[in-house]
Give the backbone structure.
Amino acid sequence: MEKNGIHEEMRAVTKFLANYAATLMGVGVQSSRILLNTERMARALGYTTDIVLFQKTLSITLHSKDGAHNYTSVKVIPSMALNFKINMKLSRLSWEALDNHLSLPEIKKRYGAIVGEKRESPWTVLILVSFANACFCRLFDGNLTSMIIVWIATFIGFFIRQQLTKRGMLPLAVFAICSFVSTMIGASDYLFFHGGTEDMSLGTSMLYLVPGVPLINGVMDIIDHHVLNGISRLSNACLLVISMTIGLMLTLLVTGIDVTTFTHVVRPNLWLASIADGLFAAVAGTGFAIISNPPRKALVISAFLACVGHGIRYFLMHNSEIMMDQASASTIAAFAIGMLAIYFGKHIHCPSECFAFPSLLPMVPGMFAYKSVIALMKIVSSPESNTMEYVSMFFHNSMLTILVMFGMVVGCVIPIFIFYRESFSVTRMNADGNHSSRLSAQNIKHMLASRKIILNLQHK
């Protein structure tokens, strides 16, 4: 009877931990945080655990402290939207369970309340994302006409995305349809308005679809030795990008637009241009952040970090004495974002990636990717004698896209790895509700190598 009771208890704990880890995976949490949070939760309940993460499923094995009993559960990871608020609150719950010795029923109750919280209003998200992408257009030198067209294209495209997602349509199909609709509206600048930056209207009209957080998470997982998960996330993100490309290609086939020139604007006052770029990036960062449903405080920080990061990058690239390439400038700007994110994470008790990742999105090399697609289409459609020029253009822009993305992610995550302990304990709170990076006396005892060391410390 006693043995059956232990197994029933372990079964309940294992099932809950599997749901807990699967929820974290579903809302887009980085692999190391999922493992640390789940292991901490198991330790709070008096067990140890082994976890294996895959893209669609996870396996968790619970062990009793004496090693005499174990229980294994396999859980399918649910399909969920990105949700940084759940990331923060479930991370905090693992610390509360450990520090306050919460029982399993109490943990389940709090878990249910967190998962059941409503997201931001879809209309609020829709409007902010539209302004974000319009500002993104301005960052790529689009004029006012282009910004208005991109705002309309984003509003309609993102609304369609919300409705199709609500109806359970396959994400790849959703991205292709939304890309086609948005780029058709963006192409109206070529067909009717001729505002002067037509290529920006078309090229940035679909950039609200770029799966920035999955791309960043994928690279971060690979750097953090979760290679299988990282490759899976990158593969899924690349499939979404291909779906976006299909929508753009359909638009170009339907309209017959020949994209051969690209806008380049020179701004005479470097300081004013850097500040203006930073302010537009702040709006873009806020809009892209709200898609991931972060805490309200994180929205303000995302705006500030995007402003600082993009302003730094613009200055480094356009200062006549520096003239840094975009990959290097993006890496330095991302490092500044990462360092500031660690600092702010401690003050609002929120994982730094909740506002660091959205802050990077205004620096995504969307136009390089757009030029790569255009070059690829030209390779297919042009006479054989002209293909080498477009092959060179394709590889040039593709490599720049990859290098800038990789530099951004590496620059941002380096501070997270430098301050690894602080990064993964920012959600810990004291009994009075304040952040604590210190370990409790009980946890210190668990971490000390031997009882003799504890006795020596007490004697002193």
In short: The beta strands are 47-53, 57-64, 70-76. The chain is about 70% helix and 5% strand. Residues 387-418 form the longest helix (32 residues). Residues 435-460 have pLDDT under 50 and may be disordered.
